[in-house]
Amino acid sequence: AHGHDGAVATTLMESPFTVSYCINVMLLGDSAVGKTCVLVRFKDGAFLGGNFIATVGIDFRNKVVDVDNLKVKLQIWDTAGQERFRSVTHAYYRDAQALLLLYDITNKPSFDNIRAWLTEIHEYAQRDVVIMLLGNKSDMAAERVVKMEDGEKLAKEYGVPFMETSAKTGGNVELAFLAIAKELKHRATQQPNEPKFKIHDYIESQKQKSGCCSLG
Ligand SMILES: Nc1nc2c(ncn2[C@@H]2O[C@H](COP(=O)(O)OP(=O)(O)OP(=O)(O)O)[C@@H](O)[C@H]2O)c(=O)[nH]1
């Protein structure tokens, strides 16, 4: 139950106690920035160290989270960053309600390519898609080549939320997915008199400035 003519989130089930929503989230960014690792950290609470195995085409994992006492199912699509898989992944963009766009803070080209990723997103994704920029591998302070301020500046230019994450320590990983879930759940259930959910404010109030600690 997804896609649904571009609806923000699809109601799966209603009972007096629970309403559940299904949200499609896609992970994008250059190869080796850590998309699979961020997803595995969120899903299983573990870090995939060791040899790098590039994703082939596209893969997905589900996770159910609680948002204001409602169950929200995130269906998360992990795409291959390698150029040769681009035509495969483009086909999935329009089914995504949210996109997590990653770069690696120790890899300058992966940051420089973010503008090209955003151009692709504007070409293939839904107009109202929620985009979040993530600077991953924040635990690798000694190898850092992209300043946190540069990530913040770029995100501001495009009007998208930003945070640095670490799949290794878990820093901000859960927050990134939870903020997306909250935003889309609010969009789906918004009452006329209800104040709008402010994703930027929420993230600023919750985020950890370094990848030093896990949210648990
Ligand atoms: N130190 C550190 N290493 C990381 C982090 N995230 C990923 N890595 C490492 O970076 C490499 C690439 O991670 P992946 O998650 O496979 O990268 P990807 O973006 O999914 O790559 P593609 O599938 O080719 O698009 C692996 O060797 C990981 O162990 C992180 O937050 N910190």
TrEMBL record:
<keyword id="KW-0813">Transport</keyword>
<dbReference type="Pfam" id="PF00071">
    <property type="entry name" value="Ras"/>
</dbReference>
<dbReference type="GO" id="GO:0046872">
    <property type="term" value="F:metal ion binding"/>
</dbReference>
<dbReference type="InterPro" id="IPR005225">
    <property type="entry name" value="Small_GTP-bd"/>
</dbReference>
<keyword id="KW-0547">Nucleotide-binding</keyword>
<dbReference type="GO" id="GO:0005525">
    <property type="term" value="F:GTP binding"/>
</dbReference>
<protein>
    <recommendedName>
        <fullName>small monomeric GTPase</fullName>
        <ecNumber>3.6.5.2</ecNumber>
    </recommendedName>
</protein>
<keyword id="KW-0479">Metal-binding</keyword>
<dbReference type="InterPro" id="IPR001806">
    <property type="entry name" value="Small_GTPase"/>
</dbReference>
<keyword id="KW-0653">Protein transport</keyword>
<keyword id="KW-0342">GTP-binding</keyword>
<keyword id="KW-0460">Magnesium</keyword>
<comment type="similarity">
    <text>Belongs to the small GTPase superfamily. Rab family.</text>
</comment>
<dbReference type="GO" id="GO:0015031">
    <property type="term" value="P:protein transport"/>
</dbReference>
<dbReference type="GO" id="GO:0003925">
    <property type="term" value="F:G protein activity"/>
</dbReference>
<dbReference type="InterPro" id="IPR027417">
    <property type="entry name" value="P-loop_NTPase"/>
</dbReference>
<keyword id="KW-0449">Lipoprotein</keyword>
<keyword id="KW-0636">Prenylation</keyword>
<keyword id="KW-0378">Hydrolase</keyword>
